[in-house]
Structures are given as C-alpha cells and as structure tokens.
# Entry
Amino acid sequence: MAGRAEHLREAGDPGPHQQGPANVARRGTPGRGKGKAADKGAGTKAKGRQDGGRGSGRGSVRAEREPVSRPVGGGLAELIPDRERPHGWTLLIDGAPQSHVDLDDPAHLSFAYQRRLGHVIDLAAPPLRPLHVLHLGGGAFTLARYTAATRPRSTQQIVELDAPLVQLVRDHLPLDPQARVRVRAADAREGLGRIPDGWADLVIADVFSGARTPAHLTSAEFLTEVRRVLKPEGRYAANLADGPPLAHLRGQVATAAAVFPELALAADPVVWRGRRFGNAVLLASALPLPVAEFTRRVASDPHPGRVEHGRALTDFTGGAAVVTDAAAKPSPAPPPSVFENP
# Structure
C-alpha cells in the first residue's frame, strides 16, 4: 500500500509491501486542510455497496456504508467509512491506519505526512505541468490520485508488493479511468530496478512492513538506484518513521547526503526534539530545492511542522554512518501507543 501498507509490509520480513503505517502521523483520525486532509470492522464484508461510476472512477456510495475487510499479504485490511466525508475511506492494516481517500475529492490529504508529500508534488514543477512519478508503496493510491487530480496527464507507476491489497483497492476504491496510472505488484527495490534511467521527475517512497521500513530500502545502494531513475532535476521524497533517540533518522539523512547534494527534512517539532515517535519527510535532489517555500507550506499546515536543511541538517546527523546493504536494518518498530486514538 502506499504509505503504511507497502511500508509495513516490506519491513524486515519477506511479506508484501504496504504503504507506510498511515505513517505514524497517519495513524490519527482523518483531519482537514489544504484541500488535502488531516489524520474496526469485524471480519465480514460490507453489507452496503459502493458503486463505481460517474466516469471519474470516484463512484457513488449508498447510504449506511459499512466497513469492508479482507485478508491481504500484510494482514487484515479494513476499509472504514469516513463519517464526515460521504465518499471518504480510511484503509487500516491489522488495525493501524495506512491511507485515507476521498473519492469525490482526491486532492484532500488526510494525514500530516501525506500533506507534506503533497507539498513536494506541488513544488516539483509549475502548476498543472504533468510529471512522471514513481510511487514505491501503493496503499490506497492516495498520492497517485492527488497527482492525477492536481497535475492532469501525469504518467505514474505504483510498485506495491501486496497483490491482494491492490485488488481490494481496485475493487472498492477505483482509480479515475482517465488517470495514467500503472500498478505493478512487485518488491519496491525490484520494481525500481526496472525503471529506465532518467525517467522520473519524482520518486516517492512510502513503504512499510509491519510498521517498519524494510532494511533493503534504507541503504546507499538503494538511493543510488533512485538517483539513476531520476531526471537530472528530479527529486526523491521518502516517508520515514523514528522515535527517540532518532538514530534511524540520523542515519537515513547521512545516507541520503552520500548520494544527493541537496537535502531537506520535515517533521513535527516534538519529533525533532526526540520526544515522540513520528513521521518525517525527507526531500533530496541533485539540484537546489525550494526550501523556503517548502518550509512555509509545512509551517502553515493544520499540524505545523519544521523543516531543516543545510548546516543544521548536517549537524542533526551527529556523525551518523552511511547505511550500506551489508549493514542495513529495518526502521524501529513504533510503540503500541502510536496507533491509539487520543
């Protein structure tokens, strides 16, 4: 899945990838903002039904929508209706939020980390210009939908290891048939290896397995492959998760700096201070980044974040070693409290 699903699944085991744990940030309840959004069912299939249609793939929904659940590669997947948005759904894997989708408003991003990735998409090129985007981790295809809605005629590829999850999303949360989105069931790094040199304007990694980023997606060798598929001016964005003492996050920044000369990192202030486990969005490129505007947008979100770059970000790494394939480990598992509602 995009976000936690692919994220979680790729975590240390060979199970299917899922998008990151609704990103740790995602794990809250859906919210609102930027036109994007803020953050159990039993094992029975929904009695209500979602009908496809309206030409856009958004579909219409009958009253009294009920949860849908189905076993997938990463565990038990559930689609929970959003009580505040008539066509909104939250995807959970084993009870942990992975993605939120509003079929009537794909530009609505519900989780804080997804909003920050939305800013990355917005700043990747002038408004409305189509992009070539590679999504490592599919989830509910939230960011691919966002890109298709805000940048029509973009060409996108999604690499998601969990084929049953992909089918669940296709069945209940269909993509706009006009969107140029190809979904491939494969391991994220394997799928990355099939992309031609210099194809992508943007590569977005949001892959978790069991709420942990898989080890093989944390190394310098992996990032070297990412840089290979990017255009010279292309950008890489990753959803990372860590908690005190932030050793994983420091190592990921140091590793990215060994491959990309330009970096920025966005996270909640409490995460920066090492007081809470949470998400961080890493942005990297071979060319200068729009740091000032990215900083402004992240600070203006409903849940304001802070962006660091340059010397301050180098100091943050504290001399952390570059991660190689030989020494790579999955990201740390989040504490159970991360998935509890306030």
